[in-house]
Amino acid sequence: MSKIITKIEAQKKKDNRVNIFINGEFAFGCSSELVYYHNLSKGKEINIEELKKVIVEDNFLTAKTKALKYIERALKSEFQVREFLQKKEYEDSVIDRVLEFLKAYKFIDDEYYAKAFVTQNIKIEGKGNIRYKLIKKGISEEMINNILNEISSMDEETVALKLAEKKLRALCKNEGNIVKIKSKLNTFLISKGYNFDTIKSVVNKLEIKEKENIEAFRSDGYNQVKENQWDELLSIAEKRYERLSKSEEDAIKIKKKLQDFLLRKGYNYSDIKTVLNKIIKGEDSYY
């Protein structure tokens, strides 16, 4: 029995797609572009081979469109795009064709992707973590090694030291045991993907040997309110002080109420004490 196109109608929800009916029954949907490309029209007789070509071409066009939308959100590796299309249940032959198109027009480029990823992430973690993440994204180990080898151990250690200093100050707020602090700091750096030699060097540079070191970190101004935070605290305190002064004349009571108010706001006691002295006593030096 011959196969004749009996109807071609536009899809209601997708302007660029049509439904093809053969011998009075729905056969398949495809891009309207293919209707013109294959000269499909009502009453035309179509054989199985022609039909297969139309369907394959339509799958390629829809897969390509989905892939382009996927990569426009952010850079993607070839593996990520392949995985995305596989989840959409496209055949491997269609996926391969889409990937060739994307690579030919530089929409995907694993080397460019890997270099951009390293540049961004080396500021916040070590080579170990970066290597693991890139492998999961399908980047070859050879390419990863070549890119990571361009980053010197000194540069990596500099970043690790900055991260460790920040972490150390946070640990010193709640922990006074030097052994526990050192252990937690090591665990933190390991979780960031730094190797043993880098961690050892960083910890040694921080000179965490005596309790005095902890006290030094606590008193080096780190816990002081930063300039912008200070301005905010001072502004809130001054406004509250003006309101309290209208209903209360006793300076001691005003100071106590203002202190309680700022404590409820979550400000540090030492900072509150400084701002109270500035507002009530008129002291200008608050650092």
Automatic annotation (TrEMBL):
Q: What is its main location?
A: cytoplasm
Q: Which locations, inside or outside the cell, does it occupy?
A: Cytoplasm
Q: Which GO terms describe its cellular component?
A: cytoplasm
GO biological process annotation, one example: regulation of DNA repair
Recorded hits in InterPro entries, A to Z, give: RecX_HTH_1st, RecX_HTH_2nd, RecX_HTH_3rd, Regulatory_RecX, WH-like_DNA-bd_sf
Pfam families from the entry?
RecX_HTH1, RecX_HTH2, RecX_HTH3
Q: Where is the secretion signal located?
A: none
RecX second three-helical domain boundaries: 109-145
Keyword Ribonucleoprotein included in the entry's annotation = no
* UniProt keywords, alphabetically: Cytoplasm
Domain annotation RecX third three-helical: ranges: 155-203, 227-276
Q: Which ranges carry the RecX first three-helical domain? A: 63-102
Q: What does this protein do?
A: Modulates RecA activity.
What protein family is recorded? Belongs to the RecX family.
Enumerate the HAMAP family for this protein.
Answer: RecX
**Protein name, entry field:** Regulatory protein RecX
- Provide the gene name from the record: recX
